[in-house]
Amino acid sequence: MEKEQQINVTVNGGYAPATVELKKGVPASLTLTRTSDQGCLDVVHSDALGFNTDLPLDQPQTVTVPTDKSGEFTFSCGMDMFHGKVVVKP
């Protein structure tokens, strides 16, 4: 059994890294830490990945990412101005 994939994403005027690559079938999570008080980045959501999470300033928030299907899945801030992408590779 492969170890869980854990990716840290910094939220500061956007997402860094903006594209995250994961392996299909291996449990995965993203830990997002907002380091800027820029307005609409206080929420991150993804219909495709099934999460909608508040991001309090300087408090890491972890979301589980499904890896049962390969493909590209987007996530964005509350106003859909800043985008990130999760790529699940076969």
From TrEMBL:
<dbReference type="InterPro" id="IPR008972">
    <property type="entry name" value="Cupredoxin"/>
</dbReference>
<dbReference type="InterPro" id="IPR028096">
    <property type="entry name" value="EfeO_Cupredoxin"/>
</dbReference>
<protein>
    <submittedName>
        <fullName>Cupredoxin domain-containing protein</fullName>
    </submittedName>
</protein>
<feature type="domain" description="EfeO-type cupredoxin-like">
    <location>
        <begin position="2"/>
        <end position="88"/>
    </location>
</feature>
<dbReference type="Pfam" id="PF13473">
    <property type="entry name" value="Cupredoxin_1"/>
</dbReference>
